[in-house]
Design brief:
By secondary structure, the chain is of the alpha/beta class. It contains 21 helices and seven strands. Helix 9 crosses helix 12, helix 16 packs antiparallel against helix 17 and helix 17 packs antiparallel against helix 18. The chain is globular and about 85 Å long. The N and C termini lie far apart (79 Å).
């Protein structure tokens, strides 16, 4: 691999114009929000939220070029308040000297900035001294302070499709000088696509590694077997935005779901030792408590929610103890996904039957006209009846016999169903 160029393939292939950008057609297509923004000549502060390798950094660079603005790139892990203030002071000096074009400050992993760091940006964004573009793989509603988030437009970048990734591959093979000099033949793509995990940057870097693994006298024939042989020799490094981040959190959640506290604790320790955000872990535990434990032990959701609050208050290293306690509790709890299954079925039913009207007796009737139209007529108030229950229809007639929730076979839900059936018979 000694003849591989120093500049990585992913960097060499970085698009320079919106028309070259692959994927995100809802943003950069002819009617996309970012395309319309460029056409209007108005550049607001914004947050790009999406998985790694889908073009967040590239979009920031393209916008800087389109609007002819200076671009300052910061990484939230290695930059601090001092770096932010230096950029703001430089922008203020330019404004004072009459040479002002509001610069773009691009902050990668903005969710890693703490409150004081985000506060340092707020005034400059409010006054229009800088245009902020933040990139995050985490939900900005959780990680970006509300005052800053309210002053930014949030754009969601979607995972790249298989077609998008294939387009990236073929474009690289057709246009990159080094790849063309190798005359590489792309015979199979499944392994490359699978190993890249939808990350275009990783896909291109893997392609370069595989082509570079052939000797100068060989014609690079890219097959699934060759890809796996080369990439299995690469020691993965835990990256909070990378493949191992998603692989380990997946192993962690599946260990909880599989009722293995030892495995769950091990993966928890792996994440904490690698510097993973404990709040990210705690949020995933809340989801696990609802999705995998559910009504089999409703206290699990309460405890997981309290865990997140406690972790936020205490911080590391003590937060590891709180996480450990709740991980063991979740892993050893009885399991049920009945709520998860029920809401998925309900969502699908709602999509198919969104046209059905609300039955008249269930409608709200705040005005005399609505009462004249029989809104709320014949509604029976359950608390006026024995056991606070009365039989009446609550669904549109077309689907009145549908059953979405089915109790799982665990002591808690069996008891819930038993009590409900007894309740219904005491009319």
């Amino acid at each position: 691999m000694n003849d591989i160029p120093q500049i990585p393939l992913a960097e060499r292939m970085r698009p320079k114009k919106l028309t070259d950008f692959v994927g995100q057609r809802h943003l950069v297509g002819p009617q996309g929000a970012i395309s319309r923004m460029v056409q209007s000549g108005v550049l607001p502060s914004m947050i790009f939220w999406g998985p790694p390798g889908v073009g967040k950094t590239t979009l920031a660079q393209i916008l800087a070029d389109e609007f002819d603005r200076e671009l300052f790139k910061l990484n939230a892990i290695s930059s601090g308040v001092k770096d932010i203030r230096e950029i703001i002071e430089k922008a203020e000096r330019s404004e004072f000297m009459g040479q002002f074009k509001k610069p773009i400050v691009f902050i990668d992993e903005i969710h890693r900035f703490n409150k004081s760091q985000q506060d340092a940006l707020l005034a400059a964004v409010e006054k229009g001294i800088i245009c902020l573009i933040g990139a995050t793989t985490e939900n900005p509603s959780f990680e970006v302070i509300s005052a800053l988030l309210s002053r930014c437009q949030t754009f969601i970048l979607k995972p790249l499709t298989k077609e998008d990734l294939l387009q990236v591959l073929h474009h690289a093979l057709a246009t990159d000088e080094w790849l063309q000099s190798k005359h590489a033949v792309l015979q199979e793509t499944d392994a490359l696509l699978a190993m890249s995990g939808g990350d275009a940057r990783k896909l291109l870097n893997y392609l370069e590694m595989v082509v570079g693994s052939f000797s100068s006298s060989e014609t690079p024939l890219i097959t699934n077997q060759r890809v796996m042989s080369v990439l299995q020799q690469v020691t993965p490094v835990y990256d909070k935005n990378g493949e191992m981040h998603y692989d380990i959190i997946s192993a962690f959640i599946k260990s909880i779901r599989g009722s293995d506290p030892d495995a769950a604790l091990y993966w928890l320790a792996r994440m904490l030792q690698s510097g993973e955000d404990p709040k990210f872990i705690a949020r995933r535990m809340i989801i696990s408590a609802a999705e995998d434990i559910g009504l089999a032990n409703p206290n699990a959701l309460l405890l997981a929610t309290s865990c997140f609050q406690a972790v936020e208050m205490v911080g590391m290293p003590e937060a590891r103890i709180i996480l450990s306690e709740v991980v063991i509790y979740l892993a050893t709890s009885p399991k049920s996904n009945s709520s998860y299954v029920a809401i998925n079925q309900a969502m699908e039913l709602a999509k198919q039957t969104h046209h059905l009207p609300v039955p008249l007796h269930l409608r709200n009737a705040p005005t005399a006209l609505m009462k004249e139209l029989n809104y709320g007529l014949n509604y029976k108030y359950p608390h006026d009846f024995p056991n606070h229950y009365v039989a009446q229809k609550y669904l549109p007639s077309e689907i009145e016999n549908i059953k979405l929730y089915c109790a799982a076979n665990n002591p808690r839900e069996i008891e819930i169903e038993k009590q409900w059936m007894q309740h219904k018979t005491k009319k």
